[in-house]
Structure formats: structure tokens, C-alpha cells
Design a protein that fits this description.
- This protein is α+β, with helices and mostly antiparallel strands.
- It has three domains: 283 residues, no CATH class; 114 residues, no CATH class; 58 residues, Orthogonal Bundle (Arc Repressor Mutant, subunit A), CATH 1.10.10.410.
- Helix content is 40%, strand content 20%.
- A nine-stranded mixed beta sheet has the order 2-6-7-10-1-11-12-13-14. A three-stranded antiparallel beta sheet has the order 5-4-15, with no helix packed on it. Strands 3-16 form a two-stranded antiparallel ribbon.
- Helix 7 packs across helix 9 and helix 14 packs across helix 15.
- The longest helix is centred in the middle third of the chain and has 20 residues.
- The termini are far apart.
- It comes from Brotonthovivens ammoniilytica.
- Its EC number is 6.3.5.-.
- It catalyses: L-aspartyl-tRNA(Asn) + L-glutamine + ATP + H2O = L-asparaginyl-tRNA(Asn) + L-glutamate + ADP + phosphate + 2 H(+); L-glutamyl-tRNA(Gln) + L-glutamine + ATP + H2O = L-glutaminyl-tRNA(Gln) + L-glutamate + ADP + phosphate + H(+).
Length: 477
């Protein structure tokens, strides 16, 4: 009988905060930019330069801590983590070891197996390092310090996850909480959310944890899921062969779907942490904490509950819409203007989702205004344009955020509701298609569809389909 194994997973998630400036200086945190242009003596580690803490970083960290049910450390400090690496100009990183800002939290996830709480051991604030670029052509390494000093929070989970599915559910939950708070855009592909996976396997029922490895370089949910499956299989194979799993840091290569050892953790690096001498402790008063608590926005879970009560839309729609803060904002703003939640939901769920998929875009990249979507809904409801034309207009709204009223006017797309004009066109169509008329009168009711199509074609798609049907039936009787 083969042994049953259980995977034990904990995550360290780094999130770049959405501040305009860095954590200890006034340089821009904007992504991109020519190498080494968002820098100054502080973030390039020049001797004699001194850090000044960015207050917004503390506020975002507290907001994330409150939203993940953590205890806030009201007297917290920064520490120096010492290590040498070319992208780390000071030869130390300012982080928090002894008194992290948030502790003992947790979030609830839901998977096919049901609900489960994943514990959060701590959240601490720190500065990011620069970035090394390896130039194969010149056979050298270059360093870009633009990212150096960008504020991060590191969210350290408890080893509570048992599968890739739980890991993805946990990351998704964190990402939505942080996006709703506006604390970060959490774009994995730009590195503003990065996850390191600590994974071990043990026999089902064993009390002790197995030896864990840490995997880095994971920049998409798919890569994370593949890395977990790959590493689990690798460790089980070693155990089955009677070999040791070595505690080490591994780098996942998503193209080859394999992980490589980077460095051993046997001689676990001694970072010689000591309290950061250039920064005073951070004291978070009760008033400050209450002010942040009072300003917390409505998070996704509460939004979902409210949507189900307040708007007459299917649960599935509510799930998808609240799955993106941008989508939820557009939905609420448009509904506030036109007062038709079901119609707004339909446009978002069908046409918007279709165009996002076709253009390979994220909901965050939607550029049209709620005002213009509301105008289009009003035009359709009033019968000023028919559904075919409305879709065509919406594509323009989606692409260029045009004013639908103006567009319909300029392109002459209004539905023809003039009965006289319609009647004479339909009489002509009936005269030109004796066979279809014959079929219809012989009980082939489908034949009327062809005649409707011909009429719409003659009217360049701008006729009112209801009226066309009505007149046709009357003339064919």
C-alpha cells in the first residue's frame, strides 16, 4: 500500500505600496522610467544621507492589517538587516524584525472543500532593493536603483495551506483586499505583488513538519500553481527513494516547469539584525488608529452582501463584478446615474467582458466613463437605437469613451420609427420575395425571419425590429 502525503505550505507575500514617493525619501515610485532616474543620495545609499519615514506607508500598512484582522503594534520599530548584494546599495535593508506593525491576523478563504481561515503570522514594512539586469551580450551585470527604496509590506502567513487551490484562493483574497483599500495595484506581472512559497511534504497523520524549501521568481497565479505541483512531486520522489530533502532556496523556471537550487539554507544567513539607529520608533496613537479604522472602505465581502440585497442582479453577476474594484466602481456609478442595475450588469457581464477578453485587457484598464455607459443604456431603453446598433456604439465607447448621443447623431444611427417609411419598404420586400411569402402562408412560420432580415438590410439595420415584425404579420395575413 503506497503512502499518502500531505503538502504543507506557507507564503511570504511582498506588496509594493501605491505611494507617490519612496519609503524614506522623496523619489518617485512610478514603474518604468529610464534606469537610475528615480534616485537620490538616500535611496542609492550614499554615506551620510538619512532616511525620513513616509507617513502614508504606515497608514497603508495599518489599513491592510485591520482588513486582515491583525493586532496593530502601536509601538513599533525598524531594524537593519545586513547583507551584501550589488542591488542593495547600503549593504543593509531597513525592515522590521522584532516589532512588526501587524501580528496574529487571518483571512477566510473558500475553495471547493469549503471555508477555511489562513493565519497571518505578521505584516512588516520594509524597503525594496534595486534590480540587477544581466547583459548576456556584454557579459556583465548592470544595476538599476529605481526600485530601491520603494515601500513594501511583507505578509507572512502561517503554514496553514495544504494545496495549490488554497494558495491561489488566499492570494486572490489578499489581492482583492489590498486593491479595494487602494494600497497597491497588486500587478503580479509588474512585480508589485510577489509571492515566495515555503513548501514541505509529510506523511498524512505525521505530527512533525517535513524539511521545507523556499521557491522564488513566481510572477503569475498559474506559475505559482505549477511550481507547487512540481515541488510537491520532487520532494515526494526524494522521500520515496529514501533521500533527504535539503532546506534551500529554489528558483522556479516556468518555461521548463522545473525548479533549480539557488542557495542552501543550511548555514542560515545571519543577517545581524539590530535596531535601525537613524529612525525613531513609530508610535501609533489610539486616535490615529481609530481614524484609519473609520476610513476603511467597504471590502469585497461586504459589497457582495449589499449587492444581493440592494440590486436585483444574479449572484453570479455580483461575484464577477465585485471581483474587480474598477468594475464595481463603474457598476455603482452607472447605476446611480440611470437607476437600472440589471441593464448595467448586463452590459458589463456580456459586452465589456467580451471586449476585455478580445483585447487581452484587465478590468483595471477599462477607460470608459459611467456617464457614457448610462447614456447608451438610456438610448437603448428609449428605443432610439436598436440592440445591434447599441453594440456597435458600445465598441466605440469602450475604445474611445465617445459620447453615445453625439455619435448616434453624427453617424445617423437612430432607429427608424416612421411607420409610413417602414410600410412602403416592407411592401417592396414582400413583392420581391414571393417564395418566402408563399412558404409563410403554407405554415412555415420561420420564413418571416428571412423577410425581417431583408427589411433590416434595406433599412441599414436601423429599423425598429418590433415594428417590422408587426407590419409584416399584418401585411402577410
Amino acid at each position: 500500500m503506497s503512502k499518502q502525503y500531505e503538502t504543507v505550505i506557507g507564503l511570504e507575500v511582498h506588496v509594493e505600496l501605491a505611494t507617490k514617493t519612496k519609503i524614506f525619501c522623496g523619489c518617485s515610485t512610478e514603474f518604468g522610467g529610464a534606469p537610475n532616474t528615480h534616485t537620490c543620495p538616500v535611496c542609492t545609499g550614499m554615506p551620510g544621507s538619512l532616511p525620513v519615514l513616509n507617513k502614508q506607508v504606515v497608514e497603508y500598512a495599518i489599513a491592510v492589517g485591520l482588513a486582515t484582522n491583525c493586532q496593530i503594534t502601536q509601538y513599533c520599530k525598524f531594524d537593519r538587516k545586513n547583507y551584501f548584494y550589488p542591488d542593495n546599495p547600503q549593504n543593509y535593508q531597513i525592515s522590521q524584525l522584532y516589532l512588526p506593525i501587524c501580528r496574529n491576523g487571518g483571512v477566510e478563504i473558500e475553495t471547493a472543500a469549503g471555508k477555511k481561515t489562513i493565519g497571518i503570522h505578521e505584516i512588516h514594512m520594509e524597503e525594496d532593493a534595486g534590480k540587477l539586469i544581466h547583459d548576456e551580450w556584454e557579459n556583465c551585470s548592470l544595476v538599476d536603483y529605481n526600485r530601491s527604496g520603494v515601500p513594501l509590506i511583507e505578509i507572512v502567513s502561517e503554514p496553514d495551506m495544504r494545496s495549490a487551490e488554497e494558495v491561489i484562493a488566499y492570494l486572490d483574497k489578499l489581492r482583492l483586499i489590498i486593491q479595494y483599500l487602494g494600497a497597491s495595484d497588486c500587478k503580479l506581472q509588474e512585480g508589485s505583488m510577489r509571492a515566495d512559497v515555503n513548501l514541505s511534504v509529510r506523511e498524512v497523520g505525521a505530527a512533525e513538519f517535513g524539511t521545507r524549501t523556499e521557491m522564488k521568481n513566481l510572477n503569475s497565479f498559474k506559475a505559482i500553481a505549477r511550481a507547487i505541483e512540481g515541488e510537491r512531486a520532487r520532494q515526494i520522489e526524494l522521500i520515496e527513494e529514501g533521500k533527504q530533502v535539503v532546506q534551500e532556496t529554489r528558483r522556479w523556471d516556468d518555461n521548463k516547469e522545473y525548479s533549480y537550487a539557488m542557495r542552501s539554507k543550511e548555514d542560515a544567513q545571519d543577517y545581524r539584525y539590530f535596531p535601525e539607529p537613524d529612525l525613531v520608533p513609530v508610535v501609533i496613537s489610539d486616535e490615529w488608529l481609530e481614524r484609519i479604522r473609520a476610513n476603511q472602505p467597504e471590502l469585497r465581502t461586504e459589497k457582495l452582501e449589499r449587492y444581493k440585497k440592494e440590486y436585483d442582479i444574479p449572484d453570479y453577476d455580483a461575484e464577477i463584478i465585485t471581483g474587480s474594484k474598477k468594475m464595481a466602481d463603474i457598476f455603482e456609478a452607472t447605476t446611480a446615474i440611470c437607476g437600472k442595475p440589471k441593464k448595467v450588469s448586463n452590459w458589463l457581464m456580456v459586452e465589456t467582458m467580451r471586449l476585455l477578453k478580445e483585447n487581452d485587457m484587465e478590468p483595471e484598464q477599462i477607460a470608459f466613463s459611467p456617464e457614457n455607459l448610462a447614456k447608451l443604456i438610456e438610448l437603448t431603453e428609449a428605443g432610439t437605437v436598436n440592440s445591434t446598433v447599441a453594440k456597435e456604439v458600445f465598441e466605440e465607447v469602450f475604445k474611445n469613451n465617445i459620447d453615445p448621443n453625439q455619435y448616434v447623431e453624427e453617424k445617423g444611427l437612430k432607429t427608424v420609427n416612421d411607420e409610413g417609411a417602414l410600410r412602403s419598404t416592407i411592401e417592396q420586400i414582400i413583392k420581391d420575395n414571393p417564395q418566402s411569402v408563399e412558404d409563410y402562408r403554407n405554415g412555415k412560420k420561420k420564413a418571416i425571419g428571412f423577410l425581417v432580415g431583408q427589411t433590416m438590410k434595406a433599412m441599414k439595420g436601423k429599423a425598429n425590429p418590433g415594428m417590422v415584425n408587426q407590419i409584416l404579420q399584418e401585411l402577410l395575413q
